[in-house]
Specification:
- Helix content is 0%, strand content 46%.
- By secondary structure, the chain is an all-beta fold.
- The strands form two sheets. Strands 7-9-8-10-11 form a five-stranded mixed β-barrel. The protein has a five-stranded antiparallel beta sheet with strand order 2-6-5-3-4, with no helix packed on it.
- A hairpin with a 2-residue loop joins strand 8 (89-94) and strand 9 (97-100).
- It starts with 5 loop residues before the first strand and ends with a strand.
C-alpha cells in the first residue's frame, strides 16, 4: 500500500499486542489493523474496529500467522476526503484513512488529531487504542 501510517513516537514502546493473521495475508508496516474474529486481524478496509497499527511487515505466505500491533503512540496518518480539525476524535474511515470520530462511531475512536488536516493530507495524530 502507499498510505501506511508513519511512526513518529512510540509511547511505552508502542504497547504492542500480538494478534493472529492469515499466513496468505501480506500486511505492510504502518497499516491500520482491523479485528475480524477471535484475536484475528487483517488490513483495515473501511469504518471497522481498528485494534492497532502493524509494527512490522508481514509477507504473504511466509509461514507466519502472528503480527504485532502498536496501540499507543504518535503517528502521521492520512485523512479521508473530509479531513479533520485539531483536537477532533478520529476513527478509521477507509483503507488506512482516518476521519472524524462522530457520535455514530465513538466506539471506533482510535485517537485524537494533533493537527488540522484537509482531504488526503497526512497529519500527526495521537493513537490510543
Amino acid at each position: 500500500m502507499a498510505s501506511e501510517a508513519t511512526i513518529l513516537e512510540l509511547i511505552n514502546g508502542g504497547e504492542t499486542i500480538n494478534f493472529t493473521c492469515a499466513d496468505a495475508t501480506g500486511i505492510s508496516k504502518g497499516t491500520l489493523l482491523e479485528i475480524t474474529g477471535d484475536n484475528t486481524v487483517t488490513a483495515n478496509t473501511g469504518e471497522d474496529i481498528v485494534v492497532g497499527i502493524a509494527a512490522a511487515d508481514k509477507e504473504a505466505n511466509d509461514g507466519a500467522t502472528r503480527i504485532g500491533a502498536h496501540t499507543h503512540g504518535i503517528f502521521d496518518v492520512w485523512c479521508d476526503a473530509t479531513g479533520v480539525t485539531l483536537g477532533d476524535p478520529i476513527a478509521a474511515s477507509g483503507a488506512n484513512l482516518i476521519g472524524l470520530g462522530n457520535s455514530a462511531s465513538f466506539g471506533n475512536v482510535i485517537g485524537k488529531a494533533l493537527e488540522t488536516g484537509s482531504a488526503s493530507e497526512k497529519i500527526r495524530c495521537l493513537i490510543r487504542i
